[in-house]
Amino acid sequence: MLFIQNGWSIPVEITKKGSKTMKGISLWEPWASLIACGAKRYETRSWPTNYRGPLLICASKGGLLKSKLIDVIEELAYQGGLAPLIGKPLDATGENTHCRSITHKHLQFGKAVAICRLTDCKETGHMSQDEIGIDMPFGDFASGRFAWKLDDVCRLECSPSFTGRQGLFNVPLDVSRTRQFVSVLRHNTCQKELTQQWIDELLGEL
């Protein structure tokens, strides 16, 4: 079913009990936060999806061993891509990162970190290097996989705790949950215009 809000076409599912839902997906850190920071524009998976619409990005509670995680985020590309977590400009190439400031303590385990729009699903073997661009260090673009295109990414600066699940899962948009997301978005200090678009869209679902 499609709902129209501010000119946007919003796919929203209706559950048997009549409550609306959007989709969510859980990722290990630091990749969930890379999406939230705008460095990771594609989520690569071994399976495709036909879903298009709002997507809640959740950071899993578990993931890499701490020693491996530390090694990963010490790479310059990851330091630059995660820079917004400490109030610095995004630098997904890492070329302008002069100090290693990001640590595992800045990551958001077990929380919802962003809301975005899944707009396309591409076969990785059909993507050019230019199309992949700065995403190359942050995904597995080997042939035979699928790249999910993420647009309108809005970081949740005050990340609420959220328990995700494997695969795409439903996120109920009941009144209480919707108001929670709106309250979190209203604490954003950046991306003011995009934040307001998401607030208007969520309020339109009430």
Share of residues in helices: 10-25%
Which band does the percent of strand residues land in?
Answer: 25-35%
* SSE topology string: EEEEHEEHHEHEEHH
CATH architecture of the domain at 23-62 and 107-194: Roll
CATH superfamily of the domain at 23-62 and 107-194: Hypothetical protein
CATH fold name of the domain at 23-62 and 107-194: Archaeosine Trna-guanine Transglycosylase, Chain: A, domain 4
Secondary-structure content class: alpha+beta
- Main beta sheet: strand number and arrangement? 7 strands, mixed
Q: What is the overall pLDDT average?
A: 87
Essential attributes:
27% strand; two-stranded antiparallel ribbon; alpha+beta; 6 helices
Structure description:
With about 210 residues, the chain is of the alpha+beta class. The chain has a domain at about 25-60 and about 105-195: Roll (Archaeosine Trna-guanine Transglycosylase, Chain: A, domain 4), CATH 2.30.130.30. It is built from six helices and nine strands. The protein has helices at about 30-35, 65-75, 75-80, 130, 175-185, 190-205, and strands spanning about 1-5, 10, 15, 20-25, 40-45, 55-60, 110-125, 145-155, 170. The strands form two sheets. Strands 3, 4, 5, 6, 7, 8 and 9 form a seven-stranded mixed beta sheet that branches. Strands 1-2 form a two-stranded antiparallel sheet. Helix 5 packs antiparallel against helix 6 (about 190-205). Mean pLDDT is about 85; it is low at about 1-20.
